[in-house]
Amino acid sequence: MRQVHTGTFTVLLADDNLESLKNLKGLLEKEGYDVRVAFDGNQAHYLARKFMPDIVIADVQLTEMDGFSLCQALRQESNFHSTLIILLSDNNNEWEEMTAFDCLANAYLSKPLKSLAFLSRLKGLLRRKPNQIPRQLILDSGKLVVEPTTSSLQVEGNNIHLPSKTFEIFMFLASNPETVYSRDELLLRLWGSDDEINARTIDVHIRKIRQKMGERYIHTIKGVGYKFKV
């Protein structure tokens, strides 16, 4: 597995809870990340545009501009299409998680963070930075067009919308055609850790893909996993 050299990555950490901010900053700096901090959403937006960090980690309950609004604002700018954005929350509910992914966040994590699990997740995200994914995939003799930078796709000219994480899974499989991945492998590659996530979560996302696109592209290999095939 390719190693991630954390010293080359800059992080913008935004949280109005000073204790939480201090603890996470210390953890990241110990691992070699270059960390800058913001205490509210407006400051985070300003610093992100000024310093162009590789990673933005923001609490969703930020004052001035909440984490969801910050994520949306950054994603609307082309300079931040490939930036890793992680949203943190003291809550752990489905609505917030769906909102985070609708905003095109790369991850939604609940506080308090478990240090080792968080670092593992972060390194997993860095291994598959979006700017390592092709800008466009044209497959199946042009019948399938995938646009990673806008998280959109077309099937025979029809626009298809998938939730952010579901699109991410589809994009990963489509970028590696004919390769079979088990549920555990997909969890590890797309979440960075499979310790706290049920492997059947993958089945839910695959079901969403098939509801939108049919069973034409994502194939089940019984007893093994899933693969993309045209």
Decide which structural class fits the backbone.
Answer: alpha/beta
| Low-confidence sequence ranges | 1-7
How many runs of DSSP E, i.e. beta strands? 11
Would you identify the CATH H-level superfamily of the largest domain? Response regulator
Q: Strand portion, in percent?
A: 15-25%
Largest sheet: 5 strands, parallel
Level-1 CATH class name of the largest domain: Alpha Beta
Name the CATH architecture of the largest domain: 3-Layer(aba) Sandwich
Number of helices: 8
N- and C-termini, Cα separation: 28 Å
Mean pLDDT: 84
The dominant shape is globular
Our Rg estimate from Cα atoms comes to 18 Å
Helix content: 25-40%
The secondary-structure element order is EHEHEHEHEHEEEEHHHEE
- List the domain count as a whole number: 2
CATH-derived topology of the largest domain: Rossmann fold
What strand order characterises the main sheet?
Answer: 2-1-3-4-5
Summarize this entry quickly.
The chain has 230 residues and is an alpha/beta fold.
List the helices and strands and how they pair.
Elements: E1 10-14, H1 18-30, E2 34-38, H2 41-51, E3 55-59, H3 67-75, E4 84-89, H4 94-102, E5 107-110, H5 115-127, E6 137-139, E7 144-147, E8 152-155, E9 158-160, H6 164-175, H7 183-191, H8 201-213, E10 218-221, E11 225-228
Helix pairs in contact: 2-3, 5-7, 6-8
Polypeptide structure, described:
This protein has two domains: 6-130, Response regulator (Rossmann fold); 133-228, Winged helix-like DNA-binding domain superfamily/Winged helix DNA-binding domain (Arc Repressor Mutant, subunit A), CATH 1.10.10. 39% of the residues lie in helices and 20% in strands. It has helices at residues 18-30, 41-51, 67-75, 94-102, 115-127, 164-175, 183-191, 201-213, and strands at residues 10-14, 34-38, 55-59, 84-89, 107-110, 137-139, 144-147, 152-155, 158-160, 218-221, 225-228. A five-stranded parallel beta sheet has the order 2-1-3-4-5, sandwiched between helices. It has a four-stranded antiparallel beta sheet with strand order 6-7-8-9, with helices on one face. The chain is globular and about 50 Å long.
